[in-house]
Amino acid sequence: MSRQINDKKLITYLNPDSPISEAYRSLRTNIQFSSVDEPVQTIIVTSADSGDGKTTTIANLAVAYAQEGKRVLVVDADLRKPSLHALFSQSNQIGLTNILTNQVAWQEAVRETKIDNLEFIGSGPTPPNPSEILGSKRMKALIEELKGQFDIILFDAPPALIVTDGLVVASMCDGVVFVINVGTTKRGQAEKVYASLEHVKARVLGAVLNNKKRKDKDAFYYRYYGKTAGSN
């Protein structure tokens, strides 16, 4: 059952004509053209630390894809501190952990949202071993199943410097978007996250600069897309 969405953070849904919404659409376009030979279907969004804006970024990016007519699934893979369900006004009682522990089929955990073409899977109950569950063969198989049903699948992952969960999932996805909070994320932290992603052979699509002061109303939300976290 779909529910009304009132969260002001979903700017792409509530105010699609705003400059920030346009920036998310530009982000979507840059991801699509990041590699013509290797299409990007599964994307994980992570950050260095909590509060960097990764969940807001992934939610708005998901809406931007859905508004393009793509069939989109957004999955909360932050099993330790989930928050994506709140943005979409959804229950988190059944979700990814239930699927991975074979309690329910993924079709039973998918929830419709108020937004056309956009569906959601919550994290579900917090397990005692998040990294092991996310790194399981069942997770790999689930991703392959979902790829046959959705055009774009986005995973919200925990901050990469806090736990290794996100790195585990990153190695299974087509690409990673790294959210950097300007003013709080240190250069050394960004470089460490990038090195960790490179170590697990994850494909870093680029970085989003969150809370970047815009010089004018048309300035984009993201910067240096497609470059390494250590670039100037």
Number of strands: 7
Number of helices: 10
What does the radius of gyration come to? 16 Å
User: Separation of termini?
Assistant: 46 Å
Note poorly predicted spans: 216-232
State the assembly state of the protein chains.
Answer: single chain
Overall helicity: 25-40%
Look at the helices and sheets and give the structural class: alpha/beta
Biggest sheet descriptor: 7 strands, mixed
The sequence of SSEs as H and E is HHEHEHHHEEHHEHEHE
Q: Mean of the pLDDT scores?
A: 86
Features:
34% helix; 232 residues; alpha/beta
Secondary structure layout:
Elements: H1 11-14, H2 19-32, E1 42-47, H3 54-67, E2 72-76, H4 84-87, H5 96-100, H6 106-109, E3 111-112, E4 118-121, H7 130-134, H8 137-147, E5 152-156, H9 165-170, E6 175-181, H10 187-199, E7 204-210
Question: How would you describe the overall organization of this protein?
Answer:
The N and C termini lie far apart (46 Å). The chain has a seven-stranded mixed sheet, with helices on both faces. Helix 2 crosses helix 3. It is of the alpha/beta class and 232 residues long. The protein has ten helices and seven strands.
Concise account of the structure shown:
This protein has 232 residues and is an alpha/beta fold.
